[in-house]
Design a protein that fits this description.
Layout lengths: L1 H8 L14 E8 L4 E6 L2 E9 L2 E8 L1 H10 L4 E10 L2 E8 L11 H22 L6 H8 L4 H36 L13 H29 L9 H7 L9 H8 L3 E3 L7 E3 L1 H16 L12 E4 L7 E4 L1 E2 L8 E2 H22 L22
Antiparallel strand pairs: 1-2, 1-5, 2-3, 3-4, 5-6, 7-8, 9-10, 11-12
Length: 376
Amino acid sequence: MEEQSKTSSLWSEETHYIQRMSDRESFYLHCSGGFRAGKVGNDRWMIEPILDRERPSSKGFFSLRQLEAFLKQSRITPVAFQHSGWTNGSYYSLWIPLIPGQANHQIGASDLWGNIAGNLGDAKRRARLSQMSEPKLEAVAAVLDEQDADERLALFISLSLRGMDISVEQIGEFYNENLVNGLAEGKFVEEHSSTTLDQVLFSHVHSFFMHAGAARDYLGALIAFRVGMDDRKDDFARFIGELRTHHLGSDPMLDFIHSQGLIAKSTTKLDKFETSGWLKDLSVLRKTFIHKRPFGSKFLERFGALKSLRADFPLYRYYRPVVTGSNSGETDVFDLIISQYRSMNALFHQLAYLTGSDTSVGTITDADIITARVKE
């Protein structure tokens, strides 16, 4: 009775209803250094943060062409568009990475690989699902989880690439917040500082290399499956270890990464291959931050600073050093990640079309609906 009394007394306490945001949306272009631009109308953009009368501000208006010229002059790298907002109080966000060499960025690499997995699955299981007289969730899940290697690995690649997107988005948010705060607090250029939230940055740097390495490994397993090798060798280094000259010419994806210099003949082992080019750089970075030490463990990596981008304009960026190899902190960790991120997106975007699979967005018809529930 005493416990019931305590519980019932809660209803007599003061109540504050949780506020729900009214519907709204935003469209931003995220860039290196914590810089971004917001679209506020038809071909009207504002850039931020700019220091105006000692306060971080947004400045406009620019056309898209003027914005592109400004970014180039200021040595700022565009990374991705973000369309986000609230509908009925629920937040949504669509991250659209810019793909080098492409004019249309609406469908990213992760989307393409997700479409491949979904279309492969639909073709294999549509009949089985339509024959279910009493579809239960567990039974439907069991059918959907029966995946062949090509579908399974395409899905894994899609999820890993999406993990990269999320990591880059969060690092960009960290940079933007620290840049705005630094300008608002009047921090001097090159004044190094840290906060308790630095652990957020360390975590997302780790996540980026984990997801990038996973996408690379699943790619190796998929190519192994397609050329008749053991697809259970789900480590790219193991896949390369089994690759031989006679495999070349048997798969468009394999031939493409070879033509791009991402794998090359071994200089020490006859008829064997090794990872090369920027993919080798990625592998080294992944091994460093996943297996040898976490980012943030070096003294220089624990402090960020503001840097001036232009002498003729009050434009600044956030900078966080990364120590790798002979580099003693001259490189910014976000710049390093952006370089690898753009290369990964360009590679997997092209490879998706080389699979020969259907990359179109899946559609649902009346025949595909197994069960439905109407909300009163």
